[in-house]
């Protein structure tokens, strides 16, 4: 048990260091953006005195390392600054957008995870048959296509031709759960097509790898049905890689929804990030980028910890 806690602490420390490095990269990246933020916000008609005063208000006259330290300190204390576009607190803008992104990611996960595991088990059961090849070919196709291509195909089929779902997923705070769910079905299906392929193929590979074990061969010799072997013996012993790929894809669902949100005009954190970059709203860009990074890093940390806890070999290894 002490070994497990030590490994978790090591991973936790590595994650914190990674977040610090990413925060530096985000700050430097924003600093290197062309043009002057004050001039962009105030417009070309602003006088030099007004621009200078606004730069001082934004603390742009201070050295970069001092501004970085102040920004990181405020971020840790939950103060993300004030939006340059509308003067509202960044935390207020982000909270609702982040909840929308999490709602989309959770809805997609509830569809994609069971579907991927079920298809992976079926593909392993019917290994090297036409059914297996059909599923593998289909999933490879979805992996090969970019998200926006799949999104436009679904819009064309399910929205334009069949008129089943709205092509634009605009929601507000007053919508009920059912209305919100109906509105986000197309972006959720788009993400499901992408992440299901990865999880299904990993599940299939993990089960097939376990099926080559000696105890599986013994179970087959005893006459146990193959489906029961896969369900009761092979799948539980292949949980470690399956949990890992599921957690990694959940991380992708949270941080990789930017393109899908833009295509469907979904008011999530990804859409806010794109709009803020266009407006040069740097406090929102920095806060959104760092929140995405933190979410991805800690979901990957969760994947490592869960994989370690589900695999005795990993628990006993020295990382």
Summarize this structure briefly:
With 319 residues, the chain is mostly helical.
Helix content: over 70%
Number of helices: 16
- List low-confidence stretches: none
CATH superfamily of the largest domain: MetI-like
> What is the fold named in CATH at topology level of the largest domain?
MetI-like fold
For the sheet with most strands, the description reads:
none
Which features does this protein show?
0% strand, mainly alpha, 2 domains, 319 residues, globular, MetI-like fold
Task: Write up what this structure looks like.
- The protein is mainly alpha-helical and 319 residues long.
- It folds into two domains: 42 residues, no CATH class; 224 residues, MetI-like (MetI-like fold, Orthogonal Bundle), CATH 1.10.3720.10.
- It is 76% helix and 0% strand.
- It is built from 16 helices and no strands.
- Helix 9 runs antiparallel to helix 12.
- The longest helix has 36 residues.
- The mean pLDDT is 82.
